[in-house]
Amino acid sequence: MSKYLLLALTLFSASAMAQITDRELPAEWENLVKGARHMDRFLPMEGSVMSADVWGCKDVKPRLVDNGIELPGVSFWGGNIIKGEDGLYHLFVCGWPENSPRGHMFWSKSTVFHATSENSYGPFKVVSSIGKGHNPEAYRLADGRWLVYTIDGYYHATDPNGIWWFSKFNFDNRDHKIIEGLSNLTFARRQDGSMLMVCRGGGVWISRDGVSDDWHQISDGRVYPAVKGEFEDPVVWRDSVQYHLIVNDWLGRIAWYERSKDGLNWIVEPGEAYTINFTTHKDGSVEKWFKYERPKVLQDEYGRVEQMNFAVIDTIKWEDLPNDHHSSKNVCIPMNKGLLISVLNTTEVTTKTKAIEVLVRSEEGFDAQNDLDIESLRFGSYKEVNFGRGAKVTKTRKQGKDLVLIFKGKDTGIDSEEFAPKLLGKKKDGHMVFGYSKLPCVDYTPALVSTRRPKLADDGKSVSVIVENYGLSESQPVRIKIMSNGVLVGEGEAPALKPYNAHELVIKTETKLEKKEDIPFDVTISSDNKTTHF
Asked: Nearest-CA neighbor of 55 among 395, 405, 397, 315?
């Protein structure tokens, strides 16, 4: 082997290791059953044109070239889809010339494209360019306008085929530390039409309309799993039951899946949300892309995810050079979107509940009364059903075209922290089924009370703090406790607050403090007993 080849291989190995690391996964994940992982919901890719006469390494050939979007001379990245009133699927994706001087690393000068397809999986064809920008994510505003976020700004238009205008968001961090900057934003609409946003660092923000109203940070830290990871590319969405969040550990090439009832407080479900090598064809073959990033979701009328989109690349990013055989594209992967289920009980459901009635709705392509493998079904907390436990069906009854399943509460594992128990099992044809349901007596639009940084009066005899409610219901009066360096500064009570309302609380200080800008404060709110450090 020549010294030049040896050097090249050494450099390649070093650069590869800079993009890959082995993560030690929780030991309990080895005991997860089929369907427990979010990754188990991916279905074979759609498309009809298989070709090997395309760019890419051997691991991604042959592939479905009519899936997603790809062009020989363009490197695509990111992008999500919105179905329009015209019946077309509109993809907003960024890209740059493949022969750019810096290859893939030309991404910072990418252009946002508007592409369309008659179906959700493509092939998408570019119809126009919107403007410069990277990592786009699109959503519709309450007034019908289209908004396409990109790093450092957004484009908006009344018609996706019309004129696009560029603007910038206003951010109010409310005296809280901004977590890892404001880029790679992802959005979900709340029940009252307001918007929730998660930034790359894992901070949660709220805007009344998602455009003209400022974005207000309501979280004190990142909402990602408390594990070692180089996290980026979050995607958040809400369905008729709850919020969902996936975040990618790009260095470990593994993503995590979380759920929440309010968009601020999250639980982590065990198992991979996605890793690599899950873009399968109907014949079982696999497109083995080196990396999957920028996940996005396409939702149905109930908010269920029926397809996910990913930016994929066939090699390490900086090994994608101009005029070579490497590049990137966007792929579309259909999803098992789950069942429509609902708990019929009207009183609190616990492990002491003698009979839990779960309605499973029939819909197009699914007959609840005849398609389910009843013996396979388990219901309860994800902590149980994801490991093959949970309650079994004791009885069934027909209700119109739908089916009611009856379970005993004692095996469900449903406790005070469970807000959306899970149904998991199979259909008679062996295909996995799952679904989540709301519970009676659980508040899915709670108040979300937080404060800004306390301000000490010039004479040091009082401290004021602004208390705000960014939840969807009126708060109860709350006790505010302010500490500094372990010493009590003062306590007071803030009144009940309607959503988006604020109250300035002035508290007489128990200990006189010296007036200066960098006074450390710890604020505890009695409603959640969480302490915020300022």
From this structure: 315
DSSP secondary structure string for all residues of 446-510: ---EEE---EE-TTSSEEEEEEEE-SSSPPPPEEEEEEETTEEEEEEEEPP--TT-EEEEEEE-S
State whether the Cα torsion 175-180-181-182 is positive or negative. Answer: negative
User: How many whole angstroms separate alpha carbon 408 and alpha carbon 82?
Assistant: 41
The two three-digit tokens of residue 318, written as one number: 């900086």
pLDDT, tens digit, 9 for 90 and up, residues 270-286: 999 999 889 999 999 99
Q: Give the span between the Cα atoms of 295 and 330, in whole angstroms.
A: 10
Using CA atoms, how far residue 478 sits from 97, 175, 482, 495, 527, in Å, is 56, 20, 13, 7, 6
> Is the pLDDT at 19 greater than 90, yes or no?
no
Residues 70, 77 contacting (CB under 8 angstroms): no
| Residue position matching structure tokens 């401290």 | 463
Q: Residue 192 and residue 447: Cα distance in Å, rounded?
A: 13
- Reported as half-sphere exposure (CB side, CA atoms, 13 A), residue 433 has a value of 25
DSSP string, 254-281: EEEEEEESSSSSEEEEEEEEE-SS-EE-
> What are the residues facing 286 on neighbouring strands?
280
Long-range pairs for 104-108 at CB < 8 Å and ≥24 separation? 104/75, 104/313, 104/317, 104/318, 104/320, 104/321, 104/326, 104/328, 105/317, 105/318, 106/75, 107/75, 107/77, 107/134, 108/134
Is residue 496's pLDDT more than 80? yes
pTM: 0.94
Under 8 Å between Cβ of 324 and 301: no
**Cα–Cα nearest to 384, from 345, 348, 410:** 410
